[in-house]
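Handout, section B. The chain below has 260 residues.
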Amino acid sequence: MKSWVLILGGSTGHGAATAIKLAEKGYGIIAFHFDRGEAKKIANQTIDKVNKITDGNCHYFNTNATSDQAMGKYIPKIKEITKGRPLKLLLHSIAFGTTTNFFGEKPVTQRQMDMTVHIMGNSLLYWTQNLFSEKLLSDGSRVIGLTSEGNYLAMEGYGPVSVAKVAMEAIIRQIGWELGKYGITANAVQAGITPTRALTKITDNWEKWVENTKLRNPMRRTTKPEDIAGTIDMLLNSEADFINCSIIYCDGGESRSGSF
């Protein structure tokens, strides 16, 4: 086994694809997810697959990874799993927040905004701080968050998530700037519109988004979770040691092709 990676949100979508990809590349997988009902069935399929690929070198925890209690409880477990060896990757792939407009019939509340920004943005900082203080991040470690073009475009129902993504990008830049001297890099990967379960929660018009994306994307298709997984895999190579404080676009040129 190469080393361990930690994925926050590793049961579906981009996180699941990355877990599978890195498991196939020989990494041990530690992942958090927060699934109930039907979503839990989908998560279990991912977990079974990763467990089989890694021959048991995977650990999934079904809990709210963004709470202080979870960090306090599970970081010692992570240290025990890795035997104190630093993680190769901390990936933030949690897609949970309020999707609504700022105005209208159901305007976003302060509680909803605070929750969304914390879960999809600020929590990456707190995980990084805790892991760094426990020496679970060191020379060669990567901190990666997932972002989208909603970080600079206004979209139906996307306002709260957009704010969270902008916060995450600022956090990532600062992490890379402060920890770069230790050989720890921090970057964001920007995906294009991807037909995942998370997309269906943003807007009832998600199918129209998908069709419009296929028309405007230079490669005439939407982003796949496997595209993002492949990009993250490349960023773990030593050749990427000098990529820091950046946004890496993996969208087929979609974000450079006009609005929909």
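Note. The mean pLDDT is 93. Compare this with the example in section A.
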